[in-house]
Amino acid sequence: MKYALVPGLIVQPLVENAIRHGISRRASGGTVTVTAARDSNQVQIRVLDDGVGLPPGWTLETSSGMGLSVTRERIVGLHPDGNSRFSIQPRTGGGTEVQISLPLRFAGEPAHAATP
Question: Which of 45, 58, 43 has the alpha carbon at shortest distance from 90?
Fold first, then answer.
């Protein structure tokens, strides 16, 4: 069995934000879902919540949140060739979705190895 490599603690600040800024503001609580899947030569990571959603006019570029900014900077720093993606958008029906797409690497492979 092969295990895909992802940067350590890349998901933790996203889950923390989903709880702190999304579902904790709802009296009834909510749900945070984390998924990871292979898509060709990428690993797709998604963090979804059904919380209060993003404020009107919110953008990552103007956000003062450290967790999201540091996560985005880490991804860009680890993959300066543009082979990664980090996006945040509102979910239809409420809540927020964060998507990370990273080049797929497996444990035990050299950093420069390409996976078909």
Answer: 58
d(CA 102, CA 39) in angstroms, rounded, equals 10
For the record, the structure tokens of 86 come out as: 């980090």
Place of tokens 């059904």: 50
CB contact at 8 A, 22 and 48: no
Residue pair 107/2 in contact by the 8 Å Cβ criterion: yes
Among all chains, which residue has been given the structure tokens 């080049």? Answer: 103
| Cα distances (angstroms) measured from residue 48 to each of 18, 23, 109, 114 | 8, 11, 30, 29
Give tens-digit pLDDT for 17-47. Answer: 999 999 998 889 899 999 999 999 999 999 9
